[in-house]
Write a structure and sequence with these properties.
7 strands; seven-stranded antiparallel β-sheet; about 150 residues; about 35% strand; alpha+beta; Alpha-D-Glucose-1,6-Bisphosphate, Chain A, domain 4
Length: about 150
């Protein structure tokens, strides 16, 4: 998604895990365990989907200002992140995710119940789109900051 803001301004948003709850349909926000964003830093994420609520322990695995930020969720071994590239006076942002290993059995059982949605893959992609739209709105509302 293209955002009418400088990479540094978008970077400030996507590395602020405490604000994720403002943008994500599932994530309710996070809290840094050891100071803030840096390679190897850890945070706890809080999530909700319907009646399900859960916390995650995450570690920053990519931290390259202002272009790459990624983290791994310990419980699911899922990796999430953002890539930021200057483009046309703004920033092209890509949110990505990948599995390091197959989901652990408890996650597969929960997924099979449908408690997190029947088509989990489609939901995740839609959630990512919604998250990026809200990050875009926030960045552009804050003046776009073209530094």
């Amino acid at each position: 998604m293209w955002i009418d803001a400088a990479p540094a301004a978008v970077w400030e948003l996507v590395t602020d895990v405490g604000r994720y709850g403002e943008w994500s349909p599932e994530n309710r926000g996070g809290a840094w365990a050891n100071g803030g964003p840096a390679l190897g830093a850890r945070f706890t994420g809080s999530n909700r989907r319907g009646v399900m609520r859960w916390s995650t322990q995450c570690e920053v695995i990519e931290y390259e200002w202002p272009s790459r930020f990624g983290f791994e969720v310990a419980e699911s071994r899922m990796r999430w992140g953002y890539r930021l590239e200057p483009e046309a006076g703004g920033t092209r942002v890509t949110e990505w995710r990948s599995h390091v290993a197959p989901l652990p059995l408890p996650f597969r059982v929960i997924a099979a119940t449908g408690l997190l949605g029947r088509d989990r893959e489609r939901l995740l992609v839609e959630d990512m789109r919604q998250t990026l739209e809200k990050v875009k709105s926030t960045a552009e509302l804050n003046g776009g900051s073209h530094e």
